[in-house]
Design a protein that fits this description.
It is a single chain. By secondary structure, this protein is an alpha/beta fold. The chain has one domain: 2-enoyl-CoA Hydratase, Chain A, domain 1 (Alpha-Beta Complex), CATH 3.90.226. It has eleven helices and eleven strands. The strands form two sheets. Strands 1-2-3-4-6-8-11 form a seven-stranded mixed beta sheet, sandwiched between helices. A hairpin with a 7-residue loop joins strand 1 and strand 2. Helix 3 packs parallel to helix 4. The longest helix has 16 residues. It is globular. It starts with a strand and ends in a 7-residue tail after the last helix. The relative contact order is 0.14.
Length: 262
Amino acid sequence: MTSLTPTSTPLSANFEAGSVILTLNRPERANSFNFEMVTELQQALADAEKDPQVRCVVLTGAGEVFSAGQDISEMRQGDKISYREHLEKTYNPLILQIRRMGKPVIAAVNGACAGAAFGVALACDLRIASSGAYFVVGFGGIALAPDSGVSLFLPVYIGLGRAQEYFYSNKPITAQQAMEWGMVNQIGRSDFQAQVMQIAGNLATGPLGAFAAGKQAFNHAILPNLEEVLNYEAILQEEEGKSAEHREGVAAFMGKRKPDFK
């Protein structure tokens, strides 16, 4: 593997056999997203789209975690931060970018995946989960509505009833459950990285023009209102981000205690 960017950055990139591997690289913060990481990921995807040598993209996390989602410490400025504006600059364009990208994008979910990172993984074309990976909707735990397209993607993959149950309960969805429900395409073997790269290699040798057209067709048939959903999620998040429930949820999360929403 040839490193394309310094590993000290929030996102590292490596090129291997026609694929670029983008690694969320904040292990000290459970690979949680901050503004810098989202911006770098947007740029890396744009570069991959334009680079004729790149024929597939793999997104994964450093260490044993995919990503814990948005870094809450970045959002603790309370009313000084507009949640709607933040989403309009970060996750909304990122989700649309992934879905509009002509080249296949694989989420190699190597561990815990929660919140906004869950939406990012769901936006990818394929999800390969390690045997110990799990998914948490996450938003309800800090009294927020789903964003990053989760309100659309999750019911598409597992059904509305399950989606609401796991939003309300914040229970983890195991890799095995995700596989049985159709949310995950494959569960990783002991050679997880090699398995992911074999899948990526197969895609990289495929007909990219047809792949891009097929993805457009699936988007048109199943996700025609994605941009509208993302915009509506941002409106809801703006309101919930100002609520007393959300302040209590964040305080409880930071204090590692159970929130008291009464």
